[in-house]
Amino acid sequence: MVAVSDAEVFFTGFPGFLGSALLERVLARGDGPVACLVQSTYLETARRRAREITAEIDGVDDDAVRLYEGDVTEPDLGLGDESLERVRELYHLAAVYDLAVDRDLAEAVNVRGTENVLEFADDRDVNRFHYVSTCYVSGRYDGVFTEDHLREGQRFNNHYEETKYRAEVAVQDRMDAGLPATIYRPAIVVGDSRTGETDKYDGPYYLLRLLLAQPEWLSVAFTLAGSSDAELNVVPRDYVVDAIAHLSASEETVGEVYQLCDPAPLPVPRFVDTLAEAAGHRTVTLPTTKPIARAVSSRLSSSLPLEPATLDYLDHPARYACPKTLQALEGSGVEVLPFESYVDRLVAYVLENPAIGDEPMV
């Protein structure tokens, strides 16, 4: 006998870092119950987080989060006999975020997974589709990249960027055909600006942990020829979640793309200096070429917290603007805090939680 769910909201990407926080906001505004697609590997984690989330929200019972075992890489998401015909709103966050991801894995999860979720949404004729993309669909676009940009003939730093680009192309093609969707493009997401909490040390955390692995009295970082003209666009998790929660609650955002980025990011040299100051490290930056820096990083990566793929972001030519986002969030109280205002909390969290790794959820 087929089990029929009355859930009208569907999530992928739970119990991930962003997905967990966004699910809590969706439930708190009364949009439950929510059906969540969860890989078998993460079912126990999902059950625990679901209990924690429902316990925190007044008036929400334990049954507000419904977990369904499946996988975005499988046809009909691997749901089998589970019937979710009443789903009308879908949040697609599931992706593999790893700058060094293998091409086949990135293709399976980010591209085919998104296509499968789009088919699932189409079969149920949903009236709202929310897709979390990334600003880095820009690839190495040389110039200011806005919400109106996508197909610019850009080349990409890695398979993550390229497959997220192709996934967004698939979503935008469906939007052009009538899918009522909204796309959210976060920049580089770091921990919570209030607590520093994160569940993965990647991206800028490689820079921080490289500094922390060296003596306070003298630490060394790389600088590349294009670093002084490059920006490292970082936003905290709470801003991303607050922005998506606000934008997704409005019918006026259907058909739009929103870049959730810092409109005034730090140049790379100042970003590194800010990290070093917060960590209390006297730092010297050594000018070098990318091939040399990559070779050194590869050799040291087995003993130090390094990912050679992050070097591409030290001379990244794209700069991000978010005029539509700023306009849509005007008066909401949702805004990006300056990185300098919360970097101390990020550093403190890393120091207090050294066991957290950099492995993606796949």
TrEMBL record:
TM regions (residue ranges): none
Domain (Thioester reductase (TE)): residue spans on this chain: 12-244
CDD domains in alphabetical order: MupV_like_SDR_e (cd05263)
GO BP: long-chain fatty-acyl-CoA metabolic process
Protein name, UniProt field: Male sterility domain-containing protein
Top-level taxon: Archaea
InterPro entries cross-referenced by the UniProt entry: FAR (IPR026055), FAR_NAD-bd (IPR013120), NAD(P)-bd_dom_sf (IPR036291)
Entries under SUPFAM superfamilies matching the protein: NAD(P)-binding Rossmann-fold domains
